[in-house]
Amino acid sequence: MKHWFSDGALRTMIRNTAFLGSSNVVSALLGLLALSCAGKGMSPEMFGSLVVIQSYAKAISDFIKFQTWQFVVQYGTPALASNNLQRFSDVVSFSFGLDITSGVVAVLGGMLLLPFLSHSLGLGANDFWFAMLYCTLIPSMAASTPTGILRALDRFDLIAIQQATKPFLRAIGSVIAYFGDYGFAGFIITWYASNLIGGTMYWWFAARELRRINIHGALRPRLFNVAQRIEGAWNFVWTTNIAHSIWSARNTCSTVFVGIILGPAAAGLFKIAMTFFDVTGTPAKLLEKSFYPEIMRLDPRTKKPWLLGLRSALLAGTLGMLVALAVVVIGKPLISLVFGYKYLMAYNLILIMLSAIVVSMLGFPQESLLFMAGKQRAFLAAQSIASVCYITLLIALSHFFGVSGAAFAYLGGQCLDVLLSLIPTLRAYNNRHLLNLRVPEGVVND
């Protein structure tokens, strides 16, 4: 272990993770406070409608948007390592153009689909117009260029500030809505405003950092002309877009599917369980955010990035087991305290999903390693197979076993995802010497 932590890349990754972790602990607590106020301030049906509206907007955003943050890290980090600022500017401009285009398509698509899906989602006439309002947030949800810029520039401290600000605003607004008895309208307006302000902060931070390193004009949307100067740009963004759209159907859309099959009340229970799952899986997410930029500074033909991935997976898996144990001990009283006894069934769902926490944390480096090796299509194939199996399980088990069946389906989907991604990851490692990748000047060649 002492040898592990002598690795500068691992130390940098842990430092950045600590930045994000400090804000995420606060964010998780504030998020639970907001959900607690919403759960206690409304009936289970109204709470479920609020969850469905938010999940619908996020699902549309996740399904349409390009993973531009991954594109900025994949192509922009080596450009910065070789001090090629023009190349980095082109990468940001192309990424920004994709964000604008996908945002427009997503908001129009979400609004056009909503009249046909509102009845299936269990939304009444008043809820429908609130859902329409919430759809206007989709462009800010679909934009990830600023997060890519901040990760490539190693400004995880600014990401941490933004991640703490949004739940802080949501929690304050939810407390006001609860004690002021503003009902459904008060909560949804509060959640809307916190998302809008939080998304704007990302762009402000990114623009400020670009000016700091004397890059001007990068935040001008460009597509086709710039793409011709970035070899493999379209292949990368389309592959990652499709992979993330599939991920969206498997994860973000899960609450929507549960709402359609079992109703808003069941969707609310499943959302509480998913919130606990997201909170307990935070260490792996934080490690991934700092892991990807670090390995993009390394030569994929050497063992160094692969060993970093193995060590990071073992570290995350150990944390996952500790977190799962903590959830078993404090989960039930915490749900009773935060949400009330009427939502206590969510604890049973959490117990079913605990194993998925450890599995997903062990497998977190695989996506980044495959992208580093230029094997994004292999990752797409693994995601596609795992997601089709998961959606099939979700529909079937929810129908026969209710909301508990949905939790078992989620566990199965996570296990399939990690196992199927492991196959191309091992193959890429064994053939790493054959990787025909150009390593820019300044990238560590160890």
Q: Give me the count of strands.
A: 0
Question: Span between N and C termini?
Answer: 20 Å
Order of helices and strands: HHHHHHHHHHHHHHHHHHH
Total number of distinct structural domains: 1
How many DSSP H or I helices? 19
What does this structure look like?
The chain has 446 residues and is mainly alpha-helical. It has one domain (4-434). It has 19 helices and no strands. Helix 2 (44-64) packs across helix 12 and helix 3 runs antiparallel to helix 4. The chain is globular. The two termini are 20 Å apart. 54% of the residues are buried. Residues 438-446 have low confidence and may be disordered. This is Oligosaccharide flippase family protein. It holds the Pfam family Polysacc_synt. InterPro entries: Poly_Biosynth_Transport, Polysacc_synth. It is found in: Cell membrane. Keywords: Cell membrane, Membrane, Transmembrane, Transmembrane helix.
Describe the structure in brief.
InterPro entries: Poly_Biosynth_Transport, Polysacc_synth. By secondary structure, this protein is mainly alpha-helical.
What labels would you give this structure?
446 residues; mainly alpha; 19 helices; 80% helix; globular; disordered C terminus; transmembrane helix; transmembrane
